[in-house]
Amino acid sequence: MAAAAVSEAWPELELAERERRRELLLTGPGLEQRVRAAGGRLPPRLFTLPLLHYLEVSGCGSLREPGPGLAQGLPQLHSLVLRRNALGPGLSPELGPLPALRVLDLSGNALEALPPGQGLGPAEPPGLPQLQSLNLSGNRLRELPADLARCAPRLQTLNLTGNRLDAFPAALFRPGALPLLSELAAADNCLRELSPEIAHLASLKTLDLSNNQLSEIPAELANCPKLKDINFRGNRLRDKRLEKMVSGCQTRSILEYLRAGGRGGGRGRGKAEGPDREEARRKRRERRKRECGEAEEAWVDEASRLLLRVLHVAENPAPLTVTVSPGVGDVRPFIVGAVVRGMDLQPGNALKRFLSSQTKLHEDLCEKRTAATIATHDLRAIRGPLLYAARPPQDLRIVPLGRREAKAKDLVRQLQLEAEEHRKQKRRQNVSGLHRYLHLLDGKEHYPCLVDANGDVISFPPITNSEKTKIKKTTCDLFLEVTSAASLQICKDIMDALILKMAEINKYTLENKDEGSLSDHEVDAIPGQVSDPRATTGAEQAGSAPLVVEQVRVVDEEGHLKVVYPSKTDLDLAAAHVTVLR
Q1: CA 224 – CA 221 distance, rounded (Å)
Q2: How much is the pLDDT for 148?
Q3: Cα(271)–Cα(464) distance, rounded to whole angstroms?
């Protein structure tokens, strides 16, 4: 009777055992109640699936600890994803040893400390000897375990963003401690100092320490031989020129500045090194000033001219409006829209960077589309006003991205068949692409959709956009939508992040245009480029046009306003390199 009850409560485990699956995903609205019934832990039967290579348990507010038996029962585990749960304040018992684990994601929990016995695993011998990626972002950590490097000596990616750290443990940067670490992210913490010993991270390529409390950047950072990308924005540096540079200059220029000693000779270089050494430095600074100084000042000036200009509904002769039908309230009630004009996706990999950033937002802020879904459209392919509605699956027709026109019912069924075939071939429960989001439609009698004035469905959230409005290299004016079943504020927060990312991509494109890119004349000739003289600012006259963000109103069927974006409280961006003109 008890075994039957367990099978009924956890059918996923029964199926995984029967089909000898190597991947298991536990999520969804029913998970929280089942975990609560299991005492806030994962069910012990889960740890009797020794073939598992991938385990994900996410979005469960009642999961406080994994429970005993994980390390012993899942020896072949390669990836463990326990994100957006309630793990904390520590891990009891500790996770390791997990000898085959390569990816560990504990982001979005309530972890405060990871002391020995309640952390990631033992240090001797290493509890996580093969771990390559560790994500501890979005917790409440005030310190890292001092033996982290010994526990996971092959770590390549470490994400500590959004914690309460005020320092890194000294052992993290000792020579040879983490010889493979290439990415270190610790933005949005309380870091007060960065040790010069960071130069011992010989493989470091990307460093993000934005929005901390750093006052200095050690000159030794320039000695990291592979460092390509740094972010120190949002720190109040004593060297004000350096503070401007980190907001607008390329990494190479910043490292050259540090290498030359900065203003006042830099930090950590020793005190009295003799007149010859000091004279050599002076000459290097003078030479660098001649060769790079003017260019650096130009970077700073251009960064300060990168603007977002909000065009209010009252100023817009043809504002776009979205009408929400009552039926969508039971399916996916929240939507926010915006029009952005002036994107330059022509040069180099600008379009690829834009699409990649959207994918990353879907994975992170949108929580794999469970919290919200982004859709971006070529504005020239849309005829307003728009209607946000819910339709029966058999009545909703769309031309999905990269596919032929189909009814939503047939599209979902086709995707389900593809997913099942993929599982059989790979012996996996987890699948990729659009198939990952099919469970979000489970039990829905109507599907949400966004329809333009021609009657064409341009969006079917959270599954796909329409091929008709697909973003191309020639796209410069975009309509953005964010929908959610959770809250309106989530939609707004994600729209803020998307527009900020677009501003950064435009900034990067401007800074990195090469001879093969379009000329200014050719860019100006692209149809749809903003040319309204009312939008002209001093920055534009200097040769750098801002992105224009046009307000979009969302109304009910009677025309009563539900939301307008961006409002006065939206786009309240702290990024130093973006200025919002309202």
Answers
A1: 6
A2: 92
A3: 61
